[in-house]
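For this section, I looked closely at the sequence of one protein beside the tokens encoding its backbone, which the following lines show:
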Amino acid sequence: MMYNIHIKTDFVFTAAVAAVVILLIIPLPAILLDILIGLNLILVLLLFLIVLRTRKAMDFSSLPTALLILSFFGLIINVSSARLIISKGADFDGRIIRGVSSLAAAGSNGMADLIIRFVIFSVIIAVLAVVLTKKSIYITEENARLTLDAQTGKQMAVEAERNSGTITIKEFSIRRDDLQQEVDFYSAMDGASKFVSGNVKVGFFIIIVNVLGGIITGVLFFDKTLNDAVRTFIFLSIGNGIVQMFPAILLSAISGIIISRNVK
């Protein structure tokens, strides 16, 4: 049974990686991009609410898989939105990204003010991302290490109870399986949190590509002036960065919250 589950999980990850590669070549329509952005945000918020309602980390043993799948999903959307922004420029018609950009740039006076806002936005997101992702990785690494260190002692204690007749063979099997599941969970969370952290870093890289690549393509291929290209792609990059980085940062917070949730 476990073998079948691993096959299905591997298939999902393989399909996600293939989708990322395909989206590097084939762009999504703007309306489909908006749907995927909204769906991604809803799923991440739903996962966040589930984690808040979870009393013990082991009560949500499928969380590492959920984090990896949502991270892949967010990466697919990020790649597709970056491609559309660079290829369409001022003609980009993604409503969610344009709407968020308009809210973030509301009241700005000229291009200088827009650039300042972009710099401030980048600093704030960078600080949040670094603090949350690093702390989440530290928490998961420490929990994984402590769990592995304590595993031998716990197993010896369970075996001692079985040998003394304190517990039955059935109870021994259940407790032994629980200990193994605990080790597997924290080990998987350690890897998942590092993957989420890498996804955040990729998000920053894509924002830089949006700005620099957009300015180059705007000037060379769309006959835009340098000022127009800078204004257009910084404006769109602000909205795209907020839309893409918010779920990624929220996933980092989720991994830290669930690991530190040890209520009995």
Observations:
- The mean pLDDT is 78.
- The chain is about 85% helix and 0% strand.
- The two ends are 29 Å apart (CA to CA).
- The first helix runs from residue 2 to 23.
